[in-house]
Every structure is written in C-alpha cells, then in structure tokens.
Amino acid sequence: MKYRKIYEALERRWQVSPGFRFTDLSGWRNPHGRNAQRHALWMVAEDKLSGQRVLLAQFGGQLSIMYQKMDENGLCYGETRHIHCKDQKHMAQEIDALFARAHKAA
C-alpha cells in the first residue's frame, strides 16, 4: 500500500483518541479519478482529544502537514501551521509528535 507509514500513524492515533476520524480523498486510491494527478495524497484528520484538524497532502513531490486548532463544534480558529516532510517516514514521525504535543497542551 502506498503511504503505509502515514496510514499506520493515523491508525495509532485512532486507537488512543476517542472521536478521532479522517477522510481520505487521495488520488492514488483512484488513479483514474480527476484528483489522481493533482492530489496523490490528500487526507483530513479531526482529533477531538487534541482539538485540532490536520491536512496531510502531497503537492508535487512535497509532503506537507497543515494543522489548525478546532473547537468542540468542529470549527477551526487561529493560525494555520505547516510542517514540510522529506518522505513518508518523516511525515509519520511528525504526525505522531504533533498529536503527542497537542495532547499534552490540551
């Protein structure tokens, strides 16, 4: 499976965070769809426990994480932050660290 390490990081969070969910709109899953070339990786995760919404995407060859605080109604607020990743292993590590930091701060 393409992006296996990223999916594994999301599954780790799902196992420990009630209400965690993500929507996968990645083009790699449907190579003939209209988003296949533009968005090989495109996932939106919502984590109620840490209070944030996270976008995981690949733009060209660049893997990126964008995240923002989210209130109890699912509305985002505050600054959008970015993390640029060199590969999927690095992205998976950053996902784990991001949720761990946010959980401690919450």
Kindly describe this structure:
- By secondary structure, this protein is of the alpha+beta class.
- Strands 1-2-3-4-5 form a 5-stranded antiparallel sheet, covered by helices on one side.
- A hairpin with a 5-residue loop joins strand 4 and strand 5.
- Helix 1 runs parallel beside helix 2.
- The radius of gyration is 13 Å and the shape is globular.
- The model has no long low-confidence stretch (mean pLDDT 87).
Number of strands: 5
Q: Number of helix segments?
A: 2
Biggest β-sheet: strands ordered side by side in the sheet: 1-2-3-4-5
Low-confidence stretches: none
Q: Which structural class best describes the helix and strand composition?
A: alpha+beta
N-to-C series of helices and strands:
HEEEEEH
Q: Which word captures the global form?
A: globular
**Proportion in helices:** 25-40%
Mean pLDDT over the full residue set: 87
Rg from Cα: 13 Å
